[in-house]
Amino acid sequence: MDKREFKNKAYSELARVTKALGNPRRMEIIDLLAQGSFSVERIAEQTNLSVANASQHLQVLKGAGLVGISKKGNFIFYELAGEKVFEAWRALRELGFAQNPEAGNLVKNFFHSDSQREPVTMEELQQKMNQEDIVVLDVRPGEEYERGHIKEAISIPVKELAGRLKALPKNAEIIAYCRGPLCVYADEAVKLLQEKGYNAKRLKEGFPDWKAMGFPAE
Amino acid sequence: MDKREFKNKAYSELARVTKALGNPRRMEIIDLLAQGSFSVERIAEQTNLSVANASQHLQVLKGAGLVGISKKGNFIFYELAGEKVFEAWRALRELGFAQNPEAGNLVKNFFHSDSQREPVTMEELQQKMNQEDIVVLDVRPGEEYERGHIKEAISIPVKELAGRLKALPKNAEIIAYCRGPLCVYADEAVKLLQEKGYNAKRLKEGFPDWKAMGFPAE
DNA sequence: AATCTATTCAATAAATTTATTGAATAGATT
DNA sequence: AATCTATTCAATAAATTTATTGAATAGATT
Known about the structure:
The structure is a homodimer of 218-residue chains. With 218 residues, chain A is an alpha/beta fold. The first copy, chain A, contains 11 helices and 7 strands. Chain A has helices at residues 3-21, 24-33, 40-47, 51-63, 83-99, 101-110, 122-131, 142-147, 158-161, 185-195, 207-212, and strands at residues 38-39, 67-72, 75-80, 134-138, 154-155, 173-177, 200-202. In chain A, the strands form 2 sheets. A 4-stranded parallel beta sheet of chain A has the order 5-4-6-7, sandwiched between helices. In chain A, strands 1-3-2 form a 3-stranded antiparallel beta sheet. Chain A starts with a helix and ends in a 6-residue tail after the last helix. At the A-B interface, helix 1, helix 2, helix 5 and helix 6 of A face helix 1, helix 2, helix 5 and helix 6 of B. Chain A binds a DNA duplex (30 and 30 nucleotides) through helix 4.
């Protein structure tokens, strides 16, 4: 093998893994799997893909060594192959926001963040938790909360929020969070809470980011 | 814009940047540009691409915001759009080596690293520099050395090494380095030096990695 | 003004990726 | 043993990516 053949093969092998990440559907799947393991059917449902199509994308991710499987009864659960996978997704997400302003604008506009709706950063939340009387609210589906959540957060899935408002105090500040910066649950929750007269804001990032940064989790 | 449309657009925008990175030729170009800026012709020559093909790949990288240009006389020089780009390439390289064992084996086998040829890590080199009497040898082309190099390293481009052996001491240990873990210059240099009876090893990573890790550079 | 030179553009064919459809499979459950 | 269920497979058409070729361009230099 000569030098050129070696380089072609080496860069091709490295690109294989990156190529597997470089697809919008697969990025969304990786982002979802950062919450924990999911069956093919749930992955398809959450990402609005057909089951066959989701399965095909999962094969690509598995072939690239980015996800692994575990079997429970009749179901196959897919999960990230390691922390490095989420870290790489996070790095690419941040690179994308940094180099491609359209990505950031899209998020800003969709979340119509006026001065009332500006999100709180992880550092700011950490400070508030130490200094003020706040409520940290996890609005993800209950099973995701149970797999891990921000320390002292309470769980009210966004779908149940309208019916469980009485559990929340009117006088304290409420910080809602969900899966990540592209997840809309927290934004929806804040909208509802503000309409009902609560003092609420959302965390910009999600639980996997919080955990990856080493902030206190349970 | 509904939730699904937003997600499709957001993940697509983020994937655009990753897609631009997820190609073997473009990864090689990014790796090269980590040494500094190069003209299209030099990039084509270094990567064994035709000039038109190299230009096309550079357009893709530029379109994704990963590289920028500066003009000098008749030439256009391409350069990385920021430190984040090299950091992302580094993260993807390490993810590739971690998740795809073939990539690592390829490098190991090509550099036929027997016990005599095991590379030195950056941390080991840093320690050796403090404790022992060693020579750090930069074997990249001279202009790349001049743009920046490991502190106290001397420059002998690998092409000139055979004719300049007398500049090196027979009694001290020599650590050669080059562009990165996929660059063969340092391996070639170590081979030659060992054949001529010198005590030589190569650094596993290259100068951009050394700099990114915050080790002393000039 | 004419020429040169580095780079990009445009057209094309081949290769690869993607989503869809319907069938196949493997492993429970009845 | 038959049935059910979650998932994968195989075939296909459409879309995208890639490398190649030769021409075009823009900005020096003569």
